[in-house]
Amino acid sequence: MTEQVMSYFKTILSLIFLGGLSACTPPPTESSETLTIYSARHYDSDQIIYQTFEQMHGVKVEVREANADQLLETLKAEGDNSEADLVIASDAGALWRFSDAGLTQKVSAPEIVSQIPAAYHDPDGDWFSLSRRLRLVAFDPDMFRASDLDTWGKLADPAKSGEICVRSSSNIYNLSLMSEMIARVGPDEASEWAAGIVANMARQPQGGDTDQIRAVAAGECGIAIANHYYWARLADSGVGADRAVADATRLVVPGFGDDLGAHINITGVAITKTAGNVDLALDFVSFLLSDEGQALLVEETKELPLTSQISAEAAAGDTDNIASVERSSVALSRFGENQAEAQILFDLAGWN
Amino acid sequence: MTLSSSFKTPIAIIPVLVSLIILGPVLLAIWFGVFSPSGLSWDHILNNRLLPYSLTTLFMLAVTGMLIVLIAVPLAWLISLFDFPGRKIFEWCLILPLAVPGYVLAYSWANLASVAGPIQSAFRDLTSLSARDYWFPDIFTPAGLSVILALGLFPYVYITARAAFSNQSLATLEAARSLGMSGIRLFFKVAIPAARPAIIAGLALALMEASADYGAADYLGVQTLGVGIIRAWSSYGEPTSAARLALVLIGLAFSFMLIANLAQGKSGVQQNSYRWTTPQRTQLTGLHAGLACLHCISIMLIAFGIPVLRLLWLCLENGVPRRSVFDPVISSIILASAGTAFAFICALTLVLSNHYRQRAPWITRLSAAAGYATPGAVLGLSGLFLLQMLGQSLTGIIALLLLVWIYASRFTAAGTEPLYASLTRAPASLDHAARSLRVGRISRFYRVDLPILSPGALAAGLILFVEILKELPATLMLRPFGWDTLAIRAHAYASDERLVEATLPSLLIVIAGILPVLLLSYQITRSGEALK
Predict the structure, then answer these.
(1) Are the beta carbons of A61 and A46 closer than 8 angstroms?
(2) Which of A223, B22, B206, B315 could form a disulfide bond with B156, CB atoms 3.0-4.6 angstroms apart?
């Protein structure tokens, strides 16, 4: 600890004395190799992932955590000077934006790709999926049956008027859902769907996904749209009131009225264009796809693992009915390509 | 007597440079907004979103402003002019909400007051009503946001109004009293007009802070311009559109400052009495004392006690997160200190140069105000622009320097205002005397201006420290590796809906902010007495 304090003071001293001059000096050289990660995830358990990898490979891992759009601008501003080797983001659309801006590089890694199920490949090969995130419905079983809610279209049915709790449209989970909707049924039908949801809202969009599930348990609405892991965290909570919320609600993963699978998003990783050591970066990706890496990725987050044999129930709590849901064939990159249009359609539908 | 002529030297460059330092990132953002090609979504934002965003923002600002005045001015009057049990404690306590960031206040009150929170749950348990059977004030509305922001920002006006009430020229109040004026009439006819410039200055700061808010509005789902700016960036992927929307906020800030300036110029009250004093306090007894006490306690509880205790409760109930908060505490303190030092020097330079040159101070005030009203995220973008120009990576010293620069650009206004307030409170005759006695510039600074400035300087430094401690977006964007602050840690948890884990860093921000706020209270109390 004292060492850390000293290093802070040294930094401050050099800040004062060197000032702008230091702009010309190169960064201090490190004896060991460094893997630099730009991550849009903020989980405490990720620290263990980094530490484990540091110990395994005798390297130093440096991490910048910020929102995905901020990391994107940072990478753009840094250009070729960036020290980033990897970008991690919890949304396929966000990863698409990095590759669309030309900030990532295609890497031939057949061993890694072969581990990832086909539905989770980036068609352009710019990034790798790591874990799964389901958008689903938590409902009040006294009011609805799962069969009433097993397609997204049924949620927009006038019979559900005043029953839906959902968060703001600018949230990435809603944007990605809408992006897939646009890819499947086209913008017109997607707009109608959004307008139907707005008409059925129990209240103005507010709070996060967990707040929607809680509102169902509290009786303010009968249907909450949320990502699965928020429900799983409530079910696994140390607080009795949280577990009671999970107990009072049931889950169903809506489809799109066809047999083409559900809306599932991912956490994924891309190798940056500026990556200094691509092999080391690939080692890190391999580690994340290993049993140990997958367990660390999902243990705290309650995401679903992608490759590992570890039990999905262990990862997602009592949600075994959702772990086997298949992802649709709509390319994950469409989440990013359609995102701006999705927001415009939401805006026009009055989904705040 | 041309003091300004003695400044036709290279020194005159300094305030210009400082103005440029502060304005630089704002100008970059404006340039970026105006001259970059439009993104694909700009037309949509312009046609469909700009009006609702602006109307919501104006409504929110109007309600917030009204609430702030309604809370702060009577409180300041009560504390300055009356004595009642607990007055001495309330006097400093009432500044404490300044230590609580708006977004933390929003998390806490939303947790308490939402449909699934303890208040409504208990109500349902007691009455066996369902959530759909009763009406409950909704915090997730523009009005709810206004209440939250007003609770966090009223101390700005409380501080300035209290200083004004405590230091009113004795002659004015005595004259009014000897003419038989008392109580409410004295308040409205004499005290308010005399304190108006101070109240408006505090209100302008508070409203600029409110208009740049993102965290609280986003959490409560209110579509303000601040939220729209971030949405333009994150949903549409168009930082250009974000910068353009920020122009509207900067325009709003200019109008606040112009109004504040007009209000101050028009009142033109030239304080010319040396008999500064705290007016004799009227002793309240019985019911009146009880009501005064209850009023102060209620506001303290709503703005500080209840939300902070709720955080503490959540924190104790759930245990601390496994990631150590030691480093973020150190980083927060170092960054806030460095930012404060730089912003303070900028503020002092601007204020003094205007003072000596007797030029319209409003130009520099406007430039400081522009930074204060620009959302941190937009200034963060300017910081990234600068980085691009420098051709550097966002690491080490470069990142720290950029961040401190952006802090200065964003917060210097919070430093200049208390300094101006000190200077304008001083009688002009003091200055004239110094000039007619041909006191040298340096001597005049040490013997006249420094003693006058020192209370304002302490206030400026402390407000800057607390503001920078709470700052989130620019720090999130520009900090070097390993410099997570408490605000960043709280945000990381809260953005993942783990309010419970966010409580410890949030509480630590409050605690780290309390000490400076206490110092500030102490100084205000003391300076009031010292000026007798």
Answers:
(1) no
(2) B206
Let me know if residue A13 belongs to a domain.
Answer: no
User: Domain of A242: which CATH number?
Assistant: 3.40.190.10
* Token digits of residue A107: 């890497």
Q: In this structure, are A253 and A171 located in the same domain?
A: yes
Identify whether the C-beta of residue B385 lies closer than 8 Å to the C-beta of residue B28.
yes
* Binding-face residues of A in 245-284 toward B, CB within 8 A: 245
A and B: number of Cβ contacts within 8 A: 176
A88 with A168, same domain? no
DSSP class of residue A86?
Answer: E
State yes or no: ipTM above 0.90: no
* pLDDT tens digits, one per residue of B163-172: 778 766 556 6
**Interior angle at CA B23, CA B22 and CA B28, nearest 5:** 125
- Among chain B residues, the shortest Cα distance to A172 is held by B235
**A-proximal residues of B, 113-172, CB under 8 Å:** 114-116, 120-121, 124, 130-132, 138, 140-141
Locus of tokens 């295609």: A106
In a domain, A27, yes or no: no
| Cβ neighbourhood burial of A112 (10 Å; 0-12, 13-18, 19+) | middle
Test B492 with A219 for CB contact under 8 angstroms.
no
Residue from B39, B407, B25, B406 nearest B242 by CA: B39
Tell me, yes or no, whether A340 and A210 share the same domain. Answer: yes
Is the Cβ of B318 closer than 8 Å to some Cβ of chain A?
A: yes
Mean pLDDT of chain A: 86
Asked if residue A269 and residue A332 are part of one domain, the reply reads: no
Residue A295 domain-assigned (yes or no): yes
Tokens of A346: 């939401």
Contacts of A78 in chain B (CB under 8 A): 387-388, 392-394
pLDDT digits (tens, 9 = 90+) for A230-249: 999 999 888 888 899 999 99
Q: In this model, does residue B217 exceed pLDDT 80?
A: yes
pLDDT at position B416 is 85
Same domain, A116 and A42: yes
Given CB atoms, is B100 within the 8 Å cutoff of chain A?
no
* Domain assignment present for A55: yes
Domain count, chain A: 2
Contact with chain B for residue A243, Cβ under 8 A: no
> Which alpha helices (DSSP H) does chain A contain, by range?
2-18, 44-57, 68-78, 92-100, 110-115, 152-155, 172-200, 209-218, 228-235, 240-247, 278-289, 291-299, 312-316, 320-323, 333-337, 339-349
Chain A residues inside the 8 Å CB shell of B238: 340
- Which residues on chain B are in Cβ contact (under 8 Å) with A211? 114, 116, 497
Are A147 and A255 in a shared domain?
A: yes
List the 41-70 stretch of A: residues with Cβ below 8 A of B: 42-44, 47, 62-70
Quick one: A243 and A269 in the same domain? no
Predicted confidence (pLDDT) per residue in B430-487, tens digit: 667 767 777 676 777 777 777 777 777 888 888 899 999 989 889 988 988 888 999 9
Chain B, 214 to 243: residues with Cβ < 8 Å from chain A are: 218-221, 223, 227, 230-231, 233-239
Domain that holds residue A113: 32-132+264-322
Are A62 and A38 within one domain? yes
